[in-house]
From TrEMBL:
Pfam families: Peripla_BP_6 (PF13458). Belongs to the leucine-binding protein family. This is Branched-chain amino acid transport system substrate-binding protein. InterPro entries: BCAA_transport (IPR051010), Leu-bd (IPR028081), Peripla_BP_I (IPR028082). The keyword Iron does not apply. Residues 27-369 form the Leucine-binding protein domain. Keywords: Signal.
Length: 379
């Protein structure tokens, strides 16, 4: 009996081994995210959303590719929110890990560093959160899941002039960041076009913490609104110093504000401020509500826009792989480029010959420590 039991055990183990050898290989995709550095919270949200999409796909047996189903694996690397770090990550993902497509990065300066590498290797890249136009410009393999700054800047400028009745505006932005610089310039141009006047256009450099010289100039102009197109980790200190100098202007921002740390750091100073964003939790569609509930259950946190856009980027890639019917980067690229009316949780996405989707934006107001939907703007 013992010999018979041993024989069955050997047959069973051989069966498992055979099954493992016959299982189709995983579909490998890369993620370049700022897991450390000054916007590490955005990187963690990116990682969370990618793993949520991965788990959902694998729970369903994997993605259908041709006649079989294949499991999904995201290889997530830390680019430290540095362009040089992003370049290193992209090289690894493409040359060492042999991924089929890449999600990332999040900051425009990093996506701008990774995009030429993905383009040269002909590996599809989708950045979830990079709104600077240069990221996709002139490239066939680079896409984004978000709107671009010319649209976002126009939305904020028109909101300031029309909704807030502002006639004068001051701007303070990080000149070393592609994102901050780009949207500041768009806002300046659009606000002027609407009939408003830019009274100050002040700059600083990344990691600066003393803005008193610039804000003193702004105080002298007494603007109706102060536009801060900067990241969530910088804005609270800038508002604090502005209020300490006696600046009473209404404060506006952009999608770089969307992180829970904004209110944690700024507290009551953030009350009454507005910013543009990709979605509003309190104005969510049924699909977005399902995503928010799943994310909350898994991570005990409300997802920010970077997370929601990462989830959309993953789903776009999944659809492209399934429609391509094969694990081939060129075929996946062609299927992404052909996407029309994709129902993402952050809006409907269509690519019209380039990597920029046509999408709407929302304006949020900070009220009682929460982000409150104010209005929606479509192209």
């Amino acid at each position: 009996m013992k010999k018979l039991g041993l024989l069955f055990l050997i047959i069973f183990l051989l069966g498992l081994t055979f099954e493992g050898l016959c299982a189709p290989p995983e579909l490998k995709f890369g993620v370049s995210a700022p897991l450390t550095g000054d916007i590490a919270a955005i990187g963690q949200a990116t990682k969370n959303a990618a793993l949520l999409a991965q788990d959902e796909a694998n729970s369903a047996g994997g993605l259908k590719v041709g006649s079989s189903k294949r499991k999904v694996r995201f290889i997530i690397e830390d680019d430290e929110n540095k362009p040089e770090g992003t370049a290193t990550v992209f090289q690894k993902l493409i040359n060492q890990d042999r991924v089929l497509a890449i999600i990332g990065s999040q900051a425009s300066k990093c996506s701008n560093a990774g995009a030429p590498i993905a383009e040269a290797a002909k590996i599809p890249q989708i950045t979830p959160w990079s709104t600077n136009p240069n990221v996709t410009k002139g490239r066939k393999f680079v896409f984004r899941a978000c709107f671009i700054d010319p649209f976002q800047g126009k939305v904020v400028a028109q909101f300031a002039y029309t909704k807030l009745k502002a006639k004068t505006a001051a701007v303070l932005y990080d000149i070393a960041s592609d994102y901050n610089k780009g949207i500041a310039e768009v806002f300046r141009n659009e606000f002027t076009k609407t009939g408003g006047k830019i009274v100050n256009f002040e700059t600083y450099n990344t990691k600066d913490t003393d803005f008193s010289a610039q804000l003193t100039k702004i105080r002298g102009s007494d603007p109706d609104v102060l536009f801060l197109p900067n990241y969530f980790n910088e804005v609270p200190l800038q508002i604090k110093q502005a209020r300490q100098l006696g600046i009473q202007a209404k404060v506006l921002g952009s999608d770089g504000w969307d992180d829970p740390q904004l209110i944690q750091l700024g507290g009551k100073l953030m009350e009454g401020a507005y910013f543009s964003n990709h979605y509003a939790v309190d104005n969510a569609s049924p699909a977005l509500k399902t995503f928010i509930a799943s994310y909350q259950k898994k991570y005990n946190a409300i997802p920010d826009a970077a997370a929601a856009l990462t989830y959309d980027a993953a789903k776009i890639i999944f659809q492209a792989v399934t429609k391509a019917g094969k694990a081939n980067s060129l075929a996946i690229r062609d299927q992404i480029a052909a996407i029309k009316n994709f129902s993402g949780i952050t809006g409907v996405i269509t690519y019209n010959g380039d990597g920029d989707p046509v999408k709407g934006a929302v304006m949020l107001r900070i009220e009682n420590g929460k982000y409150v939907f104010d209005s929606a703007v479509n192209p």
